[in-house]
Design brief:
The complex is a heterodimer. By secondary structure, chain A is mainly α. Chain A has one domain (38-247): MetI-like fold (Orthogonal Bundle). In chain A, 83% of the residues lie in helices and 0% in strands. Chain A contains ten helices and no strands. Chain A has helices at 2-26, 37-50, 52-84, 86-99, 108-115, 119-143, 147-155, 160-198, 203-212, 216-247. The two termini of chain A are 32 Å apart. By secondary structure, chain B is an alpha/beta fold. Helix content of chain B is 38%, strand content 24%. Chain B is built from seven helices and ten strands. In chain B, strands 6-7-8-3-9-10 form a six-stranded mixed beta sheet, sandwiched between helices. In chain B, strands 2-1-4-5 form a four-stranded antiparallel beta sheet, with helices on one face. In chain B, β7, α5 and β8 form a beta-alpha-beta unit. In chain B, α4 (140-153) packs parallel to α5 (170-187). Chain B is globular. Classes of the chains: A mainly alpha, B alpha/beta. Chains A and B meet through α7 and α8 of A and β6 and α2 of B. The complex binds adenosine-5'-triphosphate and magnesium ion. The site of magnesium ion has 3 residues of chain B, from α1.
Chain lengths: 252, 263
Amino acid sequence: MLRSVSHKMLPTVSLVGFIAVWQFAASFWPPELFPSPLVVAKAFRELADMGVLWSHIGVSLARFTTAYLAAIIFAIPLGLFLGRNPLCRHAIDPLVQVLRPISPIAWFPLAVLWFGIGNAPAIFIIFLAAFYPVLLSTISAVVGIPPVYLKVANNFGAKPGAVFLRVIIPAAFPGIMVGLHIAVGTAWIHLVAGEMLGAQSGLGYMIVDARNFLRTDWIMAGMLLIGIIGLVINQAMRRAEQWLGRRWGGVA
Amino acid sequence: MTTPKIKLCAAEKHYSSPQGEDVIALAPVNLEIAKGEFVCLVGPSGCGKTTLINLMAGFEKTTAGTVTIDGRPVKGTDPDHIMIFQDYGLYPWRTVLGNVLFALEAKGLKKKEAVEKATEYIELVGLTKFTESFPHQLSGGMKQRVAIARALAVEPSVLFLDEPFGALDAFTRMYLQDELLRLWQEKRPTVVFVTHDLEEAVYLGGRVVLMAPGPGRVQKVIDIRLPWPRERTGDSLGKYRRELFEEFHLVHQQASGEAEYVI
Ligand SMILES: Nc1ncnc2c1ncn2[C@@H]1O[C@H](COP(=O)(O)OP(=O)(O)OP(=O)(O)O)[C@@H](O)[C@H]1O
Ligand SMILES: [Mg+2]
Protein backbone atom coordinates (compact mmCIF):
# COMPACT_ATOMS: atom_id res chain seq x y z
CA MET A 1 0.00 0.00 0.00
CA LEU A 2 2.65 2.42 1.13
CA ARG A 3 4.83 1.27 -1.71
CA SER A 4 2.18 1.80 -4.34
CA VAL A 5 1.51 5.31 -3.07
CA SER A 6 5.18 6.19 -3.06
CA HIS A 7 5.43 4.62 -6.48
CA LYS A 8 2.74 6.94 -7.80
CA MET A 9 4.35 9.92 -6.09
CA LEU A 10 7.75 9.24 -7.59
CA PRO A 11 7.35 11.28 -10.81
CA THR A 12 5.92 14.22 -8.86
CA VAL A 13 8.78 14.08 -6.40
CA SER A 14 11.40 14.07 -9.13
CA LEU A 15 9.62 16.92 -10.90
CA VAL A 16 9.56 19.02 -7.74
CA GLY A 17 13.18 18.12 -7.16
CA PHE A 18 14.09 19.20 -10.65
CA ILE A 19 12.37 22.55 -10.21
CA ALA A 20 14.10 23.06 -6.86
CA VAL A 21 17.52 22.35 -8.35
CA TRP A 22 16.73 24.64 -11.25
CA GLN A 23 15.67 27.42 -8.87
CA PHE A 24 18.82 26.92 -6.84
CA ALA A 25 21.12 26.84 -9.87
CA ALA A 26 19.46 29.90 -11.37
CA SER A 27 20.31 31.95 -8.29
CA PHE A 28 23.97 31.92 -9.38
CA TRP A 29 23.33 33.70 -12.65
CA PRO A 30 21.51 36.84 -13.62
CA PRO A 31 17.94 36.07 -14.81
CA GLU A 32 18.72 37.36 -18.34
CA LEU A 33 21.20 34.53 -18.72
CA PHE A 34 19.52 31.75 -16.79
CA PRO A 35 15.98 32.47 -15.71
CA SER A 36 14.59 30.66 -12.69
CA PRO A 37 11.35 28.66 -12.83
CA LEU A 38 9.53 31.54 -11.19
CA VAL A 39 10.68 33.95 -13.86
CA VAL A 40 9.68 31.49 -16.58
CA ALA A 41 6.26 31.08 -14.99
CA LYS A 42 5.87 34.84 -15.09
CA ALA A 43 6.93 34.82 -18.73
CA PHE A 44 4.17 32.34 -19.43
CA ARG A 45 1.65 34.71 -17.89
CA GLU A 46 3.06 37.59 -19.86
CA LEU A 47 2.97 35.75 -23.17
CA ALA A 48 -0.52 34.47 -22.51
CA ASP A 49 -1.76 37.91 -21.58
CA MET A 50 -0.23 39.41 -24.70
CA GLY A 51 -2.36 36.96 -26.66
CA VAL A 52 0.43 35.99 -29.10
CA LEU A 53 0.99 32.71 -27.33
CA TRP A 54 -2.29 31.19 -28.42
CA SER A 55 -1.92 32.25 -32.02
CA HIS A 56 1.63 30.80 -32.11
CA ILE A 57 0.37 27.54 -30.67
CA GLY A 58 -2.52 27.51 -33.11
CA VAL A 59 -0.27 28.12 -36.10
CA SER A 60 2.19 25.45 -34.99
CA LEU A 61 -0.52 22.89 -34.44
CA ALA A 62 -2.10 23.69 -37.79
CA ARG A 63 1.24 23.22 -39.58
CA PHE A 64 1.93 20.09 -37.67
CA THR A 65 -1.47 18.60 -38.46
CA THR A 66 -1.34 19.51 -42.13
CA ALA A 67 2.13 18.09 -42.65
CA TYR A 68 1.47 15.01 -40.57
CA LEU A 69 -1.75 14.17 -42.37
CA ALA A 70 -0.13 14.80 -45.74
CA ALA A 71 2.70 12.44 -44.80
CA ILE A 72 0.21 9.78 -43.79
CA ILE A 73 -1.81 10.21 -46.96
CA PHE A 74 1.27 9.67 -49.11
CA ALA A 75 3.26 7.24 -47.00
CA ILE A 76 0.62 4.67 -46.09
CA PRO A 77 -0.66 3.92 -49.61
CA LEU A 78 2.90 3.93 -50.95
CA GLY A 79 3.98 1.64 -48.12
CA LEU A 80 1.07 -0.72 -48.74
CA PHE A 81 1.92 -0.82 -52.42
CA LEU A 82 5.63 -1.40 -51.88
CA GLY A 83 4.93 -3.97 -49.20
CA ARG A 84 2.95 -6.00 -51.70
CA ASN A 85 5.42 -5.61 -54.57
CA PRO A 86 8.83 -7.13 -53.89
CA LEU A 87 10.05 -6.02 -57.31
CA CYS A 88 9.21 -2.34 -56.82
CA ARG A 89 10.50 -2.55 -53.29
CA HIS A 90 13.77 -3.93 -54.55
CA ALA A 91 13.96 -1.21 -57.20
CA ILE A 92 13.24 1.66 -54.84
CA ASP A 93 15.28 0.43 -51.90
CA PRO A 94 18.60 2.17 -52.71
CA LEU A 95 16.77 5.45 -53.26
CA VAL A 96 15.11 5.25 -49.87
CA GLN A 97 18.35 4.22 -48.22
CA VAL A 98 20.12 7.28 -49.60
CA LEU A 99 17.37 9.81 -48.96
CA ARG A 100 16.41 8.67 -45.50
CA PRO A 101 19.63 9.59 -43.63
CA ILE A 102 19.39 13.16 -44.91
CA SER A 103 18.03 15.17 -42.03
CA PRO A 104 14.88 17.05 -42.95
CA ILE A 105 16.68 20.19 -41.78
CA ALA A 106 19.28 19.73 -44.50
CA TRP A 107 16.45 20.21 -46.95
CA PHE A 108 15.78 23.63 -45.59
CA PRO A 109 17.77 25.76 -48.05
CA LEU A 110 16.11 23.99 -50.95
CA ALA A 111 12.72 24.20 -49.31
CA VAL A 112 13.04 27.97 -48.98
CA LEU A 113 14.27 28.23 -52.53
CA TRP A 114 11.32 26.24 -53.83
CA PHE A 115 8.54 27.36 -51.55
CA GLY A 116 9.71 30.74 -50.25
CA ILE A 117 9.35 31.88 -46.67
CA GLY A 118 6.24 31.09 -44.66
CA ASN A 119 4.17 28.02 -44.04
CA ALA A 120 5.33 25.91 -46.93
CA PRO A 121 8.97 25.17 -46.03
CA ALA A 122 8.08 24.39 -42.42
CA ILE A 123 5.30 22.08 -43.56
CA PHE A 124 7.64 20.47 -46.06
CA ILE A 125 10.19 19.73 -43.35
CA ILE A 126 7.62 18.30 -40.96
CA PHE A 127 6.25 16.26 -43.84
CA LEU A 128 9.68 14.75 -44.50
CA ALA A 129 10.18 14.05 -40.82
CA ALA A 130 6.93 12.12 -40.62
CA PHE A 131 7.07 10.51 -44.04
CA TYR A 132 9.89 8.01 -43.61
CA PRO A 133 8.84 6.45 -40.30
CA VAL A 134 5.33 5.91 -41.64
CA LEU A 135 6.55 4.61 -45.00
CA LEU A 136 9.10 2.20 -43.55
CA SER A 137 6.86 0.85 -40.83
CA THR A 138 4.02 0.35 -43.30
CA ILE A 139 6.30 -1.58 -45.63
CA SER A 140 7.65 -3.79 -42.89
CA ALA A 141 4.14 -4.30 -41.47
CA VAL A 142 2.90 -5.54 -44.82
CA VAL A 143 5.96 -7.68 -45.48
CA GLY A 144 5.63 -9.16 -42.02
CA ILE A 145 2.04 -10.35 -42.45
CA PRO A 146 2.01 -14.07 -41.62
CA PRO A 147 1.63 -15.92 -44.94
CA VAL A 148 -1.06 -18.12 -43.40
CA TYR A 149 -3.46 -15.13 -43.31
CA LEU A 150 -3.20 -14.79 -47.07
CA LYS A 151 -3.31 -18.52 -47.66
CA VAL A 152 -6.55 -18.77 -45.73
CA ALA A 153 -8.07 -15.84 -47.60
CA ASN A 154 -7.12 -17.32 -50.97
CA ASN A 155 -8.34 -20.74 -49.95
CA PHE A 156 -11.80 -19.40 -49.16
CA GLY A 157 -11.82 -17.65 -52.50
CA ALA A 158 -11.76 -14.06 -51.22
CA LYS A 159 -11.53 -11.53 -54.05
CA PRO A 160 -8.34 -9.42 -54.28
CA GLY A 161 -10.19 -6.31 -53.11
CA ALA A 162 -11.54 -8.13 -50.08
CA VAL A 163 -8.12 -9.58 -49.31
CA PHE A 164 -6.67 -6.11 -49.37
CA LEU A 165 -9.35 -4.47 -47.23
CA ARG A 166 -10.14 -7.29 -44.86
CA VAL A 167 -6.79 -9.02 -44.47
CA ILE A 168 -3.81 -6.93 -45.53
CA ILE A 169 -4.89 -3.64 -44.01
CA PRO A 170 -6.06 -4.99 -40.65
CA ALA A 171 -3.07 -7.33 -40.43
CA ALA A 172 -0.65 -4.49 -41.12
CA PHE A 173 -2.53 -2.06 -38.94
CA PRO A 174 -0.67 -2.52 -35.64
CA GLY A 175 2.67 -2.11 -37.43
CA ILE A 176 1.45 1.01 -39.20
CA MET A 177 0.31 2.38 -35.85
CA VAL A 178 3.85 2.03 -34.52
CA GLY A 179 5.09 4.12 -37.43
CA LEU A 180 2.40 6.73 -36.85
CA HIS A 181 3.46 6.98 -33.23
CA ILE A 182 7.13 7.40 -34.06
CA ALA A 183 6.23 9.93 -36.72
CA VAL A 184 4.32 12.18 -34.31
CA GLY A 185 7.49 12.44 -32.27
CA THR A 186 9.85 13.18 -35.12
CA ALA A 187 7.38 15.53 -36.78
CA TRP A 188 6.89 17.55 -33.62
CA ILE A 189 10.64 17.83 -33.07
CA HIS A 190 11.17 19.05 -36.61
CA LEU A 191 8.28 21.46 -36.42
CA VAL A 192 10.31 23.70 -34.15
CA ALA A 193 13.38 23.44 -36.33
CA GLY A 194 11.33 24.27 -39.40
CA GLU A 195 9.75 27.26 -37.76
CA MET A 196 13.01 28.53 -36.33
CA LEU A 197 14.60 28.59 -39.74
CA GLY A 198 12.16 30.49 -41.83
CA ALA A 199 8.69 31.06 -40.49
CA GLN A 200 7.23 34.29 -39.19
CA SER A 201 4.93 32.63 -36.70
CA GLY A 202 4.61 29.52 -34.56
CA LEU A 203 6.37 28.31 -31.45
CA GLY A 204 9.73 27.91 -33.20
CA TYR A 205 9.52 31.48 -34.46
CA MET A 206 8.50 32.65 -31.00
CA ILE A 207 11.74 31.27 -29.61
CA VAL A 208 13.87 32.89 -32.31
CA ASP A 209 12.01 36.13 -31.85
CA ALA A 210 12.57 36.02 -28.09
CA ARG A 211 16.28 35.46 -28.68
CA ASN A 212 16.42 38.56 -30.84
CA PHE A 213 15.06 40.49 -27.85
CA LEU A 214 17.33 38.57 -25.47
CA ARG A 215 14.28 37.39 -23.57
CA THR A 216 15.66 34.15 -22.18
CA ASP A 217 12.59 33.75 -20.00
CA TRP A 218 10.41 33.71 -23.13
CA ILE A 219 12.80 31.27 -24.77
CA MET A 220 12.52 28.88 -21.89
CA ALA A 221 8.77 29.29 -21.73
CA GLY A 222 8.62 28.41 -25.43
CA MET A 223 10.83 25.37 -24.94
CA LEU A 224 8.74 24.14 -22.07
CA LEU A 225 5.57 24.65 -24.03
CA ILE A 226 6.95 22.60 -26.91
CA GLY A 227 7.81 19.85 -24.50
CA ILE A 228 4.41 19.90 -22.85
CA ILE A 229 2.45 19.92 -26.12
CA GLY A 230 4.67 17.12 -27.42
CA LEU A 231 3.89 15.15 -24.29
CA VAL A 232 0.16 15.71 -24.70
CA ILE A 233 0.22 14.65 -28.35
CA ASN A 234 2.24 11.58 -27.47
CA GLN A 235 -0.12 10.62 -24.68
CA ALA A 236 -3.13 11.06 -26.93
CA MET A 237 -1.43 8.88 -29.50
CA ARG A 238 -0.72 6.20 -26.93
CA ARG A 239 -4.32 6.24 -25.75
CA ALA A 240 -5.53 5.88 -29.31
CA GLU A 241 -3.08 3.05 -29.82
CA GLN A 242 -4.20 1.21 -26.71
CA TRP A 243 -7.83 1.62 -27.60
CA LEU A 244 -7.25 0.37 -31.11
CA GLY A 245 -5.05 -2.42 -29.80
CA ARG A 246 -7.91 -3.69 -27.68
CA ARG A 247 -10.27 -3.27 -30.58
CA TRP A 248 -7.85 -5.26 -32.71
CA GLY A 249 -7.95 -8.19 -30.39
CA GLY A 250 -4.69 -8.07 -28.55
CA VAL A 251 -2.32 -8.00 -31.46
CA ALA A 252 0.48 -5.43 -31.54
CA MET B 1 -14.12 -49.00 -58.50
CA THR B 2 -15.83 -45.65 -58.95
CA THR B 3 -13.68 -42.73 -59.97
CA PRO B 4 -11.56 -41.50 -57.07
CA LYS B 5 -12.16 -38.15 -55.43
CA ILE B 6 -8.47 -37.28 -55.45
CA LYS B 7 -5.99 -38.84 -57.79
CA LEU B 8 -2.24 -38.34 -57.99
CA CYS B 9 -0.41 -39.67 -61.04
CA ALA B 10 3.36 -39.62 -60.69
CA ALA B 11 3.00 -36.27 -58.95
CA GLU B 12 6.36 -34.91 -57.92
CA LYS B 13 7.81 -31.72 -56.57
CA HIS B 14 11.27 -30.28 -56.83
CA TYR B 15 12.59 -27.12 -55.28
CA SER B 16 15.78 -25.35 -56.11
CA SER B 17 17.92 -24.75 -53.08
CA PRO B 18 19.48 -21.31 -52.49
CA GLN B 19 22.66 -22.71 -54.08
CA GLY B 20 20.62 -23.47 -57.17
CA GLU B 21 20.68 -27.22 -56.69
CA ASP B 22 17.65 -29.30 -57.46
CA VAL B 23 16.02 -30.62 -54.27
CA ILE B 24 13.53 -33.44 -54.61
CA ALA B 25 10.94 -32.70 -51.96
CA LEU B 26 8.66 -35.39 -53.28
CA ALA B 27 9.54 -38.24 -55.64
CA PRO B 28 6.71 -39.36 -57.99
CA VAL B 29 3.64 -40.35 -55.98
CA ASN B 30 0.69 -42.38 -57.16
CA LEU B 31 -2.30 -42.30 -54.86
CA GLU B 32 -6.05 -42.50 -55.11
CA ILE B 33 -8.39 -41.28 -52.42
CA ALA B 34 -12.07 -42.16 -52.55
CA LYS B 35 -14.91 -39.80 -51.83
CA GLY B 36 -15.62 -39.52 -48.11
CA GLU B 37 -12.45 -41.34 -47.14
CA PHE B 38 -10.34 -40.40 -44.10
CA VAL B 39 -6.69 -40.72 -45.10
CA CYS B 40 -3.75 -40.01 -42.84
CA LEU B 41 -0.32 -39.09 -44.19
CA VAL B 42 2.33 -39.92 -41.66
CA GLY B 43 6.09 -39.92 -41.63
CA PRO B 44 9.19 -38.36 -40.13
CA SER B 45 10.03 -34.70 -40.56
CA GLY B 46 11.09 -33.72 -44.04
CA CYS B 47 9.47 -36.66 -45.83
CA GLY B 48 7.28 -34.37 -47.90
CA LYS B 49 3.94 -34.56 -46.08
CA THR B 50 3.34 -30.83 -46.28
CA THR B 51 4.56 -30.79 -49.86
CA LEU B 52 2.13 -33.56 -50.79
CA ILE B 53 -0.88 -32.00 -49.08
CA ASN B 54 -0.02 -28.59 -50.56
CA LEU B 55 -0.02 -30.13 -54.04
CA MET B 56 -3.48 -31.56 -53.44
CA ALA B 57 -4.83 -28.37 -51.86
CA GLY B 58 -3.43 -26.26 -54.70
CA PHE B 59 -0.97 -24.21 -52.66
CA GLU B 60 1.89 -25.63 -54.72
CA LYS B 61 2.18 -26.79 -58.32
CA THR B 62 3.57 -30.14 -59.33
CA THR B 63 6.94 -30.16 -61.05
CA ALA B 64 5.78 -33.20 -63.01
CA GLY B 65 2.80 -35.54 -62.96
CA THR B 66 -0.79 -34.61 -62.23
CA VAL B 67 -3.13 -34.09 -59.32
CA THR B 68 -6.84 -34.24 -60.06
CA ILE B 69 -9.84 -33.77 -57.81
CA ASP B 70 -13.23 -34.83 -59.18
CA GLY B 71 -11.47 -35.54 -62.44
CA ARG B 72 -10.30 -31.96 -62.86
CA PRO B 73 -6.64 -31.02 -62.55
CA VAL B 74 -5.84 -28.92 -59.50
CA LYS B 75 -4.73 -25.48 -60.70
CA GLY B 76 -4.85 -23.57 -57.48
CA THR B 77 -6.71 -23.35 -54.22
CA ASP B 78 -10.42 -23.98 -54.26
CA PRO B 79 -13.08 -22.94 -51.73
CA ASP B 80 -14.43 -26.47 -52.04
CA HIS B 81 -11.12 -27.88 -50.74
CA ILE B 82 -10.25 -26.24 -47.45
CA MET B 83 -6.93 -26.49 -45.64
CA ILE B 84 -6.59 -26.32 -41.87
CA PHE B 85 -3.15 -25.29 -40.59
CA GLN B 86 -1.27 -26.12 -37.45
CA ASP B 87 -1.15 -22.46 -36.44
CA TYR B 88 -4.90 -22.05 -37.00
CA GLY B 89 -4.71 -19.10 -39.40
CA LEU B 90 -7.36 -17.19 -37.46
CA TYR B 91 -7.55 -13.43 -37.88
CA PRO B 92 -6.73 -11.90 -34.48
CA TRP B 93 -8.68 -8.73 -35.23
CA ARG B 94 -11.89 -10.66 -35.78
CA THR B 95 -14.04 -12.39 -33.20
CA VAL B 96 -14.87 -16.08 -33.43
CA LEU B 97 -18.03 -15.14 -35.30
CA GLY B 98 -16.10 -12.72 -37.49
CA ASN B 99 -13.58 -15.37 -38.41
CA VAL B 100 -16.26 -17.81 -39.50
CA LEU B 101 -18.12 -15.00 -41.28
CA PHE B 102 -14.99 -14.19 -43.27
CA ALA B 103 -15.22 -17.54 -45.02
CA LEU B 104 -18.93 -17.26 -45.67
CA GLU B 105 -18.70 -13.71 -46.97
CA ALA B 106 -15.86 -14.74 -49.27
CA LYS B 107 -18.25 -17.37 -50.57
CA GLY B 108 -20.74 -14.63 -51.32
CA LEU B 109 -23.43 -15.33 -48.74
CA LYS B 110 -25.74 -12.51 -47.70
CA LYS B 111 -25.01 -11.10 -44.26
CA LYS B 112 -28.07 -12.53 -42.55
CA GLU B 113 -27.66 -15.96 -44.05
CA ALA B 114 -23.93 -15.90 -43.26
CA VAL B 115 -24.55 -15.06 -39.61
CA GLU B 116 -27.07 -17.87 -39.29
CA LYS B 117 -24.73 -20.37 -40.83
CA ALA B 118 -21.73 -19.19 -38.82
CA THR B 119 -23.72 -19.44 -35.62
CA GLU B 120 -24.77 -22.96 -36.53
CA TYR B 121 -21.20 -24.12 -37.10
CA ILE B 122 -19.86 -22.39 -34.01
CA GLU B 123 -22.47 -24.35 -32.09
CA LEU B 124 -21.41 -27.51 -33.87
CA VAL B 125 -17.90 -27.20 -32.43
CA GLY B 126 -19.29 -26.25 -29.04
CA LEU B 127 -18.11 -22.64 -28.89
CA THR B 128 -21.42 -20.78 -28.74
CA LYS B 129 -20.39 -19.11 -25.47
CA PHE B 130 -17.30 -17.70 -27.18
CA THR B 131 -18.97 -16.32 -30.28
CA GLU B 132 -17.91 -12.76 -29.46
CA SER B 133 -14.45 -13.65 -28.10
CA PHE B 134 -11.25 -12.80 -29.89
CA PRO B 135 -8.76 -15.56 -30.73
CA HIS B 136 -6.25 -14.38 -28.13
CA GLN B 137 -8.88 -15.07 -25.47
CA LEU B 138 -9.10 -18.74 -26.47
CA SER B 139 -6.93 -21.77 -25.76
CA GLY B 140 -5.07 -23.49 -28.60
CA GLY B 141 -7.65 -26.25 -28.79
CA MET B 142 -10.49 -23.76 -28.98
CA LYS B 143 -8.71 -21.84 -31.70
CA GLN B 144 -8.38 -24.98 -33.75
CA ARG B 145 -12.07 -25.67 -33.23
CA VAL B 146 -12.83 -22.21 -34.60
CA ALA B 147 -10.66 -22.99 -37.62
CA ILE B 148 -12.55 -26.26 -38.08
CA ALA B 149 -15.90 -24.47 -37.78
CA ARG B 150 -14.75 -21.89 -40.33
CA ALA B 151 -13.66 -24.63 -42.71
CA LEU B 152 -16.80 -26.73 -42.35
CA ALA B 153 -19.11 -23.71 -42.61
CA VAL B 154 -18.42 -23.41 -46.33
CA GLU B 155 -19.32 -27.09 -46.66
CA PRO B 156 -16.23 -28.21 -48.53
CA SER B 157 -16.10 -31.61 -50.15
CA VAL B 158 -12.46 -32.04 -49.12
CA LEU B 159 -10.83 -31.11 -45.86
CA PHE B 160 -7.04 -30.96 -45.71
CA LEU B 161 -5.37 -30.79 -42.32
CA ASP B 162 -1.62 -30.29 -41.91
CA GLU B 163 -0.63 -31.37 -38.39
CA PRO B 164 -3.68 -29.58 -37.00
CA PHE B 165 -3.19 -30.84 -33.45
CA GLY B 166 0.61 -30.75 -33.44
CA ALA B 167 0.81 -27.79 -31.08
CA LEU B 168 -1.75 -29.09 -28.58
CA ASP B 169 -1.32 -31.02 -25.37
CA ALA B 170 -2.15 -34.73 -25.31
CA PHE B 171 -5.58 -34.36 -23.67
CA THR B 172 -6.77 -31.62 -25.97
CA ARG B 173 -5.44 -33.57 -28.92
CA MET B 174 -7.40 -36.69 -28.01
CA TYR B 175 -10.52 -34.63 -27.46
CA LEU B 176 -10.16 -32.91 -30.81
CA GLN B 177 -9.45 -36.19 -32.59
CA ASP B 178 -12.84 -37.44 -31.41
CA GLU B 179 -14.47 -34.15 -32.31
CA LEU B 180 -13.02 -34.34 -35.80
CA LEU B 181 -14.25 -37.90 -36.24
CA ARG B 182 -17.71 -36.90 -35.08
CA LEU B 183 -17.82 -33.96 -37.52
CA TRP B 184 -16.46 -36.09 -40.33
CA GLN B 185 -19.13 -38.73 -39.76
CA GLU B 186 -21.81 -36.05 -39.68
CA LYS B 187 -20.70 -34.10 -42.76
CA ARG B 188 -18.78 -36.77 -44.63
CA PRO B 189 -16.16 -34.70 -46.41
CA THR B 190 -13.09 -36.41 -47.82
CA VAL B 191 -10.37 -35.87 -45.24
CA VAL B 192 -6.62 -35.83 -45.78
CA PHE B 193 -4.87 -35.53 -42.45
CA VAL B 194 -1.14 -35.00 -42.04
CA THR B 195 0.54 -35.99 -38.80
CA HIS B 196 3.91 -37.19 -37.58
CA ASP B 197 2.18 -39.11 -34.79
CA LEU B 198 1.71 -42.80 -35.65
CA GLU B 199 -0.82 -43.28 -32.83
CA GLU B 200 -2.92 -40.47 -34.18
CA ALA B 201 -2.71 -41.84 -37.70
CA VAL B 202 -3.94 -45.34 -36.81
CA TYR B 203 -6.62 -44.02 -34.50
CA LEU B 204 -8.12 -41.70 -37.11
CA GLY B 205 -7.37 -43.01 -40.55
CA GLY B 206 -9.37 -45.39 -42.68
CA ARG B 207 -6.09 -45.60 -44.51
CA VAL B 208 -2.64 -44.61 -43.41
CA VAL B 209 -0.09 -43.53 -45.96
CA LEU B 210 3.37 -43.97 -44.51
CA MET B 211 5.94 -41.72 -46.09
CA ALA B 212 9.72 -41.86 -46.07
CA PRO B 213 12.34 -39.16 -46.52
CA GLY B 214 15.33 -38.75 -48.79
CA PRO B 215 13.68 -38.16 -51.21
CA GLY B 216 10.13 -37.78 -49.89
CA ARG B 217 8.02 -40.68 -51.11
CA VAL B 218 5.22 -43.04 -50.19
CA GLN B 219 6.63 -46.05 -48.40
CA LYS B 220 3.52 -48.03 -47.69
CA VAL B 221 -0.25 -47.69 -47.55
CA ILE B 222 -2.03 -49.53 -44.75
CA ASP B 223 -5.78 -50.11 -44.65
CA ILE B 224 -7.18 -49.87 -41.16
CA ARG B 225 -10.30 -52.00 -41.39
CA LEU B 226 -11.85 -50.95 -38.14
CA PRO B 227 -15.09 -49.08 -37.59
CA TRP B 228 -15.26 -45.80 -35.71
CA PRO B 229 -15.34 -44.97 -32.86
CA ARG B 230 -12.27 -47.01 -32.12
CA GLU B 231 -10.93 -48.12 -28.81
CA ARG B 232 -7.59 -46.43 -28.26
CA THR B 233 -6.20 -49.29 -26.20
CA GLY B 234 -7.99 -52.10 -28.05
CA ASP B 235 -6.17 -55.18 -29.36
CA SER B 236 -7.44 -54.72 -32.89
CA LEU B 237 -5.93 -51.26 -33.10
CA GLY B 238 -2.79 -52.62 -31.49
CA LYS B 239 -2.25 -54.97 -34.40
CA TYR B 240 -2.26 -52.10 -36.89
CA ARG B 241 -0.17 -49.98 -34.65
CA ARG B 242 2.45 -52.73 -34.50
CA GLU B 243 2.44 -53.12 -38.24
CA LEU B 244 2.88 -49.40 -38.73
CA PHE B 245 5.59 -49.12 -36.11
CA GLU B 246 7.54 -51.97 -37.70
CA GLU B 247 7.27 -50.35 -41.08
CA PHE B 248 8.23 -47.03 -39.61
CA HIS B 249 11.23 -48.61 -37.94
CA LEU B 250 12.33 -49.78 -41.37
CA VAL B 251 11.97 -46.28 -42.74
CA HIS B 252 13.97 -44.97 -39.84
CA GLN B 253 16.74 -47.49 -40.34
CA GLN B 254 16.91 -46.67 -44.01
CA ALA B 255 17.02 -42.96 -43.26
CA SER B 256 19.75 -43.25 -40.66
CA GLY B 257 21.59 -45.78 -42.85
CA GLU B 258 21.59 -43.30 -45.69
CA ALA B 259 22.68 -40.56 -43.36
CA GLU B 260 25.65 -42.65 -42.23
CA TYR B 261 26.47 -43.37 -45.80
CA VAL B 262 26.54 -39.67 -46.59
CA ILE B 263 28.75 -38.94 -43.62
N1 LIG C 1 9.94 -23.89 -50.29
C1 LIG C 1 10.89 -24.85 -50.25
N2 LIG C 1 12.09 -24.63 -50.80
C2 LIG C 1 13.05 -25.59 -50.78
N3 LIG C 1 12.91 -26.79 -50.20
C3 LIG C 1 11.73 -27.07 -49.63
C4 LIG C 1 10.65 -26.11 -49.61
N4 LIG C 1 9.62 -26.68 -48.96
C5 LIG C 1 10.02 -27.90 -48.59
N5 LIG C 1 11.28 -28.15 -48.98
C6 LIG C 1 12.02 -29.40 -48.76
O1 LIG C 1 11.21 -30.46 -49.12
C7 LIG C 1 11.32 -31.53 -48.20
C8 LIG C 1 9.97 -31.92 -47.68
O2 LIG C 1 9.44 -30.87 -46.92
P1 LIG C 1 8.01 -30.91 -46.24
O3 LIG C 1 7.78 -29.60 -45.60
O4 LIG C 1 7.02 -31.37 -47.24
O5 LIG C 1 8.22 -32.03 -45.14
P2 LIG C 1 7.24 -32.50 -43.99
O6 LIG C 1 7.08 -33.95 -44.13
O7 LIG C 1 6.00 -31.68 -44.02
O8 LIG C 1 8.07 -32.19 -42.69
P3 LIG C 1 7.57 -31.71 -41.25
O9 LIG C 1 7.06 -32.95 -40.56
O10 LIG C 1 8.80 -31.19 -40.62
O11 LIG C 1 6.51 -30.67 -41.47
C9 LIG C 1 12.27 -31.05 -47.11
O12 LIG C 1 13.51 -31.63 -47.34
C10 LIG C 1 12.33 -29.57 -47.29
O13 LIG C 1 13.61 -29.10 -46.98
MG1 LIG D 1 5.06 -30.27 -42.64
